[in-house]
Amino acid sequence: MNEQLDLVLPPYTGPAGSWPDVLRDAHVHRRQRTLRAALALAAAAAAAVIALSLSGTPPTTIEKALAAAGDGRILHLVFESDLPKTLVNLETGEREEVRGRHEVWFDPSAGMRERETFAGVLQWDMSAGAAGTPEHVREVYSSLLTGYRDALRDGTARVVDEDADLYWIRIARGHDVAVSRETYAPVDMRIGEMRNTPIVTYETVDSAPLEGQQVRRPDAFGADRGATTLDTAILGRPPVWAGEELNGHRLGAVRRLDLPAAGSSIPGLSIGYGDVEITMAAKPADGITMLAGVRGYVPREGTLLLEGNGGLLRADGLVVSIQATARGS
């Protein structure tokens, strides 16, 4: 347990026609030579079009980006959360970044739906009508839908940077979109001073599942039921603790908690060592997992999810959160 604590607490055209229909609709009743002349004229026109296309310049980056943006009236966007968490292998010390995924369907006339997952676990899923969409949210997603296409179409968008994989296109002041050199679809964005937000999916569609499950972020993290002892009966198994002392701090208060979990509550324990608090329960509970910024997710056995000055892990059959009020505590 002390080794795990050391890891935690270091010292975003028209339809095609056909010649028969055209001739019939125009009531054309000409002699054969007239038809031959018309066909010859059409062939000449086609040749002229081909010659023009062969002699024209290739499409620009902006034109390719516009073609890749599609013409649907609804924005479907999947992007990665800008602040990753770190998953640590407790045996090898190997670390990897894990990001949440945010999915949006935005219809300017009907409203929007947003949902977020972390490692495949639903965090929240909400929808709102057009009138209920906050103005600043509407502005951001409108700029990525109609604003993006309008800027590409009317000439105000321009390439401001590029590298081996991307073109960065400025679509408005303080708002840049990066497109792939391969597909010309958006793959990254930055707004103002915000960090870059990697885009997983960008598409415009004509229909979308706008009705969310109305699963909200949890707003309660549990109730303190008062002082208790390190009693096995509370959790149904021995609690996890660091002994009588941790980083120079003696074992302090032991509190019993009622923690919200899936519409009910489960018992938990909180153990204090100065500025360090260890919270645990026999099952995942929002009151524990949300201390690491996630809902309903617990890392697999043998790993630790780091978030800020704390972490989340499985230990001895318990779900455990370790939090410090200051780094180095």
Feature tags:
single chain, about 325 residues, alpha+beta, outer membrane lipoprotein receptor (LolB), chain A, 3 domains, 9-stranded antiparallel β-sheet, 7 helices, about 25% helix, elongated
Structure overview:
23% of the residues lie in helices and 38% in strands. With 329 residues, the protein is an alpha+beta fold. The chain has a nine-stranded antiparallel beta sheet with strand order 6-5-4-1-11-10-9-8-7. It has a nine-stranded antiparallel beta sheet with strand order 3-2-18-19-20-17-16-15-12. Strands 13-14 form a two-stranded antiparallel ribbon. It is elongated. Mean pLDDT is 82; it is low at 8-55.
- Main sheet: strand order: 6-5-4-1-11-10-9-8-7
Number of domains: 3
Low-confidence stretches: 8-55
Biggest sheet record: 9 strands, antiparallel
Short summary:
The protein has 7 helices and 20 strands.
Topology:
Layout: H1 2-8, H2 19-25, H3 32-55, H4 61-69, E1 74-80, E2 85-89, E3 95-98, E4 100-107, E5 111-118, E6 121-128, H5 135-154, E7 158-162, E8 166-172, E9 175-180, E10 186-191, E11 197-205, E12 223-227, H6 232-235, E13 245-246, E14 249-250, E15 254-261, E16 264-273, E17 276-281, H7 286-289, E18 303-307, E19 310-315, E20 318-324
